[in-house]
Write a structure and sequence with these properties.
The chain is α+β, with helices and mostly antiparallel strands. It is built from 14 helices and 24 strands. Helices cover 33% and strands 29% of the residues. Helix 2 crosses helix 11. The protein binds glycyl-adenosine-5'-phosphate.
C-alpha cells in the first residue's frame, strides 16, 4: 500500500463495492455529512454496538441501560450550556460565500491551532493573510452553533423550539433521578445509552469520521465527589479493554491528556483516546470528568433536588460524573482500517478484511462446488441450514467460480468458506477454507 490516503480510498471503495457504507441520499446527489449503512455495514455496526452493550451494561452489576427520546425540552440544552457554547469557529469566502471551519483551514495550511481562542484564530488569519482554498479573502471569524434546530408541533414560535440531540449524554442525566428512584443503586453506578446524535458540522469530512448524523455509546458513571479519580482510572482501563476487544492493535491507540484550554466547557479532566486512522492520528473516543456540572445545572434550572442520599447515613450530595463517550462510526472506521490487508495469493493481489471473528458480519459462507448439480446444491442447502441455525450470520454463495467466491468473501471478512463437493455425498465431509491463511481442510459436517 503506497500511502495512507490510498489506504483510505481503498477502504471507502471497498465499503461501497461490497455493501458496507453508501453516501446518504446518493440517488438524489447525496446529502453532505450523512451516510447509509448497507447490509454488511449494518451487521458490523450492530456487532460493535452489541459487544459494547454486553461489556458495559449487561455484564456489569453497576450499570443500567436507558433509551431516551432524541427530541428533548429546549431547557435541557439551555441548562447544559449547548445553546450558548456548542459552537465552532467559522469563516466565509468573501467571493464564493463558501464557509469553512477556521481551525481546519489553518491546520491544513500548516499552522498550529491547538488551544487557540476565537480571537487568536482571527488574528492568525489577518496577520498571515490566510486565503480560502479558492484563493479569495476571508470574512472575520464567527461562531456557529452546531445544533440542528426544529419546532415541535404545528406552531413555530419560541416555545416550540427543540433540537436534535448533539450528544446522548443529556438523556441520561435527565433520567438519573428516575433510575435512582426505581432501583436504589449504591454509588458508584452508571447509566449507559446508545443512539443517534446530530451535529451540523461546518465541514464534515474524512468519510464517516466527521458526519452530521452519527451514533454514540455513552456512559455516565455517578461517583462520590471525593472518589472520582478511582472511577476515572477504572474507566481508563476499561477503554483499553474495549480497544482490544474490537481488535485494535495496542500500538495504534494513544492517550492524549487534553489541556484545560482545549477541554469542553463541562470537563475538569479529559483524556482523548486517539487512533492511527489512515487519515492520521485522530480522536476515537473521549473520557471526561464532568464533575457535578450537569446534575447541578438540572437542579438549578428545573428546580428539582438532584441529591443522592447515602443509605444508612445522613450524607447527601450531588454525585460527580465520569463519562466515557464512544462514537460508533469512528469505532467502525478503526475496526475496518485495522482489519484491512493486502497480500498475494497465487501471483494475484488479494484484499481481505481480517475482522475478529465475533465482529465479522458473516461468519460462514456456504457453496456447492457446482451450482448446476442438484445433488450438490441439495447437500449444500442442508449444511447451510445447520450452520444458519447455529450461527445466524451465514451466507449462501453460489455466484461465479470458487476462486471468485473466495475473493468476495475475503473482501467482506468472512472467516470461513465451506464448500460441498462430490466427496461430501460419499463421506459427509466438506472443505473449509480459512480467510487469513487461505488453507483448506476437510472436516466432517458434524464438526463444523
Ligand atoms: N457527551 C460527550 C461528547 O459528546 P464528544 O467528544 O463531543 O463528547 C464523543 O463526542 C465522541 O462522539 C467522539 O469521541 C467521537 O467518537 C464521536 N463524534 C463526535 N462528533 C462526531 C461526528 N461529527 N461524527 C462522527 N463521530 C463523532
Amino acid at each position: 500500500m503506497a500511502s495512507k490516503n490510498e489506504k483510505m480510498e481503498a477502504i471507502v471503495s471497498l465499503a461501497k463495492r461490497r455493501g458496507f457504507i453508501y453516501q446518504g441520499s446518493e440517488i438524489y446527489g447525496g446529502l453532505s455529512g450523512t451516510w447509509d449503512f448497507g447490509p454488511l455495514g449494518t451487521a458490523l455496526k450492530r456487532n460493535i454496538m452489541d459487544l459494547w452493550w454486553k461489556m458495559f451494561v449487561e455484564d456489569r452489576e453497576d450499570m443500567y441501560g436507558v433509551d431516551a427520546a432524541i427530541l428533548m425540552n429546549q431547557k435541557v440544552w439551555q441548562a447544559s450550556g449547548h445553546v450558548d457554547t456548542f459552537a465552532d469557529p467559522l469563516v466565509e469566502d468573501l467571493v464564493t460565500n463558501q464557509r469553512y471551519r477556521v481551525d481546519h483551514l489553518l491546520k491544513d495550511a500548516g499552522f498550529k491551532v491547538d488551544g487557540l481562542s476565537f480571537d487568536d484564530l482571527n488574528k492568525m488569519i489577518i496577520e498571515n493573510k490566510v486565503k480560502s482554498p479558492n484563493g479569495n479573502s476571508l470574512s472575520e471569524v464567527r461562531t456557529f452553533n452546531m445544533m440542528f434546530k426544529t419546532n415541535v408541533g404545528p406552531v413555530s414560535d419560541e416555545s416550540s423550539i427543540s433540537y436534535l440531540r448533539p450528544e446522548t449524554a443529556q438523556g441520561i442525566f435527565t433520567n438519573f433521578k428516575n433510575v435512582v428512584d426505581c432501583f436504589y443503586p449504591d454509588l458508584p453506578f452508571g447509566i449507559g445509552q446508545q443512539g443517534k446524535a446530530f451535529r451540523n458540522e461546518i465541514s464534515p469530512r474524512d468519510f464517516i469520521f466527521r458526519s452530521r448524523e452519527f451514533e454514540q455509546m455513552e456512559v455516565e458513571y455517578f461517583v462520590h465527589p471525593e472518589k472520582w479519580e478511582e472511577s476515572f482510572e477504572m474507566w481508563r482501563k476499561l477503554v483499553w479493554d474495549w480497544c482490544e476487544a474490537i481488535g485494535l492493535p495496542k500500538e495504534s491507540v494513544h492517550e492524549l491528556e487534553v489541556p484545560a484550554e482545549d477541554r469542553a466547557h463541562y470537563s475538569k479532566r479529559t483524556i482523548d483516546f486517539e487512533f492511527d486512522f489512515p487519515i492520521g492520528r485522530e480522536e476515537l473516543l473521549g473520557l471526561a470528568y464532568r464533575t457535578d456540572f450537569d446534575l447541578g445545572n438540572i437542579q438549578r434550572v428545573a428546580g428539582k433536588n438532584m441529591d443522592y442520599s447515602v443509605k444508612g447515613t445522613n450524607e447527601k450530595f450531588i454525585p460527580h460524573v465520569i463519562e466515557p463517550s464512544f462514537g460508533v462510526e469512528r469505532a467502525l472506521m478503526a475496526v475496518m482500517s485495522s482489519a484491512y490487508r493486502e497480500d498475494e495469493v497465487n501471483g494475484e493481489k488479494r484484499i481481505y478484511l481480517k475482522f475478529p471473528e465475533h465482529l465479522a458480519p458473516i461468519k460462514f459462507a456456504v457453496s456447492p462446488l457446482l451450482k448446476n448439480k442438484p445433488e450438490l446444491v441439495a447437500k449444500a442447502r442442508e449444511v447451510f441450514t445447520i450452520l444458519k441455525k447455529k450461527h445466524g450470520a451465514v451466507m449462501w454463495d453460489d455466484n461465479g467460480n470458487i476462486g471468485k467466491r473466495y475473493r468476495r468473501q475475503d473482501e467482506i471478512g468472512t472467516p470461513y468458506c465451506v464448500v460441498i463437493d462430490f466427496d461430501t455425498l460419499e463421506d459427509n465431509t466438506v472443505t473449509i477454507r480459512d480467510r487469513d491463511t487461505t488453507e483448506q481442510k476437510r472436516v466432517p459436517i458434524a464438526e463444523l
